[in-house]
């Protein structure tokens, strides 16, 4: 029987910081897992290096469920983003190993293909309506069949989701994490936002018609009542979803939103366990579940969660920003292809430097992503190149209310 021989934690920064776990078995098979927690990367690296790696050596790499329970129950202190990202990285690396040993892509181990590919959405944004239209057109030219739209708000400066560097005719990407010793501060006013956003969607529907699925991210900034107002005012524009309209820690607050609007609701990118969703799922307060595999406890946890959600006709919309590494993105794609209740997959293309360090075989064609057919996850890690991109701290921005400077959700 092969055993786990080595657990390494690899930190690299090809454009942005990533933490990777590599498990090597006594037979020389390696598996990769994503352990990146944006802005708090080294906490997960230390958790794995100091507390998990030493207790995994000698175990059977094939017993994924047992290892998951060993780390979850065995840690005594359960849940939380650092713990669950660490567990996810080990879990995903073990699925990668299992696939390589079996000679099968991971989605085959999860039940095989339920669809030809995973419908992906990209991120359009604009500082004004012409720039936004240009960004939407760029995405359509690239083949996207669903597009998330974020817009600047008159009277506010830089806001979440709007690319800073917008050049006509060029692709512009939104990247919030800034290098340095402290987070950047942004200013926010919910009233200005609530009055502006419906006008943006009205303009988009006039220009692009109604067949294009459009999404929007509220990034946890509204109270439940404000979220209900926004959901109602967006109803005429037929959104695919309204994401993170209010902070989700208090699941019951989504009752207010749900009872007031038929705009579909997505939530959960900062959740990390099935318990974060329990009321939302059983009371059918949401339509799409947003966790990433990387922060949600891995493939093992997310497969169970999606099977639970399927009982309530809730679909997936896994988180896929560039701060989930290509390994995390590949893991999501294998699950997307396998589960029946897939909804949509977020897809922000990684930078060229990132894709040189993490060599992937997933493809994007005609609006659909496919994980590829290589055994395991289908991602290779280039150690030599990774070392050329040393880690340096980077932080997500913080938000303050424009009126009085009080801290607000970013
Ligand atoms: C999304 C998210 C991201 C997060 C980021 C934080 O919908 O993709 O909201 O943009 O802000 O993942 O690290
Ligand atoms: Mg989001």
TrEMBL record:
It is an enzyme of class 4 (lyase). Pfam families: MR_MLE_C (PF13378), MR_MLE_N (PF02746). GO terms for biological process: amino acid catabolic process; carbohydrate catabolic process. The lineage of its organism: Bacteria, Bacillati, Actinomycetota, Actinomycetes, Micrococcales. InterPro entries: D-mannonate_dehydratase-like, DgoD-like, Enolase-like_C_sf, Enolase-like_N, Enolase_C-like, Mandel_Rmase/mucon_lact_enz_CS, Mandelate_racemase_C, Mandelate_racemase_N_dom. Gene3D superfamilies: Enolase-like C-terminal domain, Enolase-like, N-terminal domain. NCBIfam families: ManoateDhtManD, PRK15072.1. GO terms for molecular function: magnesium ion binding; mannonate dehydratase activity. SMART domains: MR_MLE. Keywords: Lyase. Residues 130-264 form the Mandelate racemase/muconate lactonizing enzyme C-terminal domain. Its EC number is 4.2.1.8. It comes from the Bacteria. This is Mannonate dehydratase. The keyword Lyase applies. It comes from Spelaeicoccus albus.
């Amino acid at each position: 029987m092969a055993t786990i021989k080595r657990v390494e934690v690899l930190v690299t920064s090809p454009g942005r910081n990533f933490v990777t776990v590599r498990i090597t078995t006594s037979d020389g098979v390696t598996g990769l897992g994503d352990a990146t927690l944006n802005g708090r990367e080294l906490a997960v690296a230390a958790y794995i290096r100091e507390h998990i790696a030493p207790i995994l050596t000698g175990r059977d790499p094939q017993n994924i469920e047992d290892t998951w329970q060993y780390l979850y129950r065995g840690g005594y202190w359960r849940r939380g983003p650092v713990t669950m990202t660490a567990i996810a990285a080990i879990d995903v690396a073990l699925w990668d190993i299992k696939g390589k040993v079996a000679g099968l892509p991971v989605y085959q181990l999860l039940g095989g293909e339920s669809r030809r590919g995973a419908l992906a959405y990209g991120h359009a944004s604009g500082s004004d309506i012409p720039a936004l239209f240009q960004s939407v057109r760029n995405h359509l030219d690239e083949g996207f069949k669903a597009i998330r739209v974020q817009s600047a708000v008159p009277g506010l400066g830089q806001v979440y989701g709007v690319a800073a560097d917008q050049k006509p005719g060029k692709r512009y990407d939104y990247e919030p994490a800034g290098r340095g010793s402290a987070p950047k501060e942004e200013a926010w006013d919910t009233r200005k936002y609530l009055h502006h956003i419906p006008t943006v969607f009205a303009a988009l529907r006039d220009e692009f018609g109604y067949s294009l699925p459009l999404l929007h991210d509220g990034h946890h900034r509204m109270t439940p009542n404000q979220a209900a107002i926004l959901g109602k005012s967006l109803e005429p524009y037929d959104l695919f979803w309204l994401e993170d309209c209010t902070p989700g820690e208090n699941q019951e607050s989504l009752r207010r939103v749900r009872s007031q609007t038929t705009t579909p609701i997505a939530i959960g990118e900062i959740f990390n366990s099935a318990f974060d969703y329990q009321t939302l799922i059983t009371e059918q307060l949401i339509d799409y579940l947003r966790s990433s595999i990387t922060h949600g406890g891995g493939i093992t946890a997310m497969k169970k969660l999606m099977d639970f959600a399927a009982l309530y006709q809730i679909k997936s919309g896994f988180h896929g920003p560039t701060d989930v590494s290509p390994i995390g993105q590949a893991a999501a794609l294998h699950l997307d292809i396998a589960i029946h209740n897939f909804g949509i997959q977020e897809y922000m293309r990684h930078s060229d430097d990132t894709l040189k360090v993490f060599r992937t075989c997933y493809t994007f064609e005609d609006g659909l992503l496919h994980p590829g057919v290589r055994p395991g996850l289908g991602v290779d890690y280039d150690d030599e190149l990774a070392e050329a991109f040393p880690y340096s701290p980077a932080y997500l921005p913080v938000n303050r209310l424009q009126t009085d400077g009080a801290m607000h959700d970013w």
